Amino acid sequence: MSRGFVREGDQEELPMVPQRAYLPRGVANFVTREGMEQLLKEKDELISERENLETTNENEKRIAKNLINAKLQLLNDRIADARVVETSGQASDEVTFGATVTVRSSLADNVQTFRIVGVDEADISSGKISFISPLARSLMNKKAGDSVQLKRDKEVIVFEIIEIAYA
Questions:
Q1: Residues 12, 73, 128: CA angle, nearest 5 degrees
Q2: What predicted TM-score, i.e. pTM, was given to this entire model?
Q3: 31: burial class by Cβ within 10 Å (0-12, 13-18, 19+)?
Q4: Predicted pLDDT at 13
């Protein structure tokens, strides 16, 4: 039946699902082993949530299931495209994906430590930055003792690489 013959009150809005973390088209979806485990755990949680919906209203249940299914579709696409990068055993003389990098910032002369991870596992409050972030891109292939410049608004911040490690 055409949507034109459905009562207005029966029309269901498509769920608005927030997009996953930004990953430019054509860029490989690199993830750490922990990042892949995180994605798979999120998938299990969404499936469990869908199976255990507790509502007696069938309309609300259908809308909630549609929302979860939409989230699962985006997540499944991300998992299918994921490329796990093994970081253990890497030589710690150069910054690559998965590196934990300690830097000194010229802005406040403070020392910070970041781990370069996939877009879905990035969390600045946990010291994890996405490999596509400007800082991570500028640090790639550099060695301890090297400095990189990051332009921000009207200032240039210089980061000196103090230490590189891999878990």
A1: 120
A2: 0.84
A3: buried
A4: 63
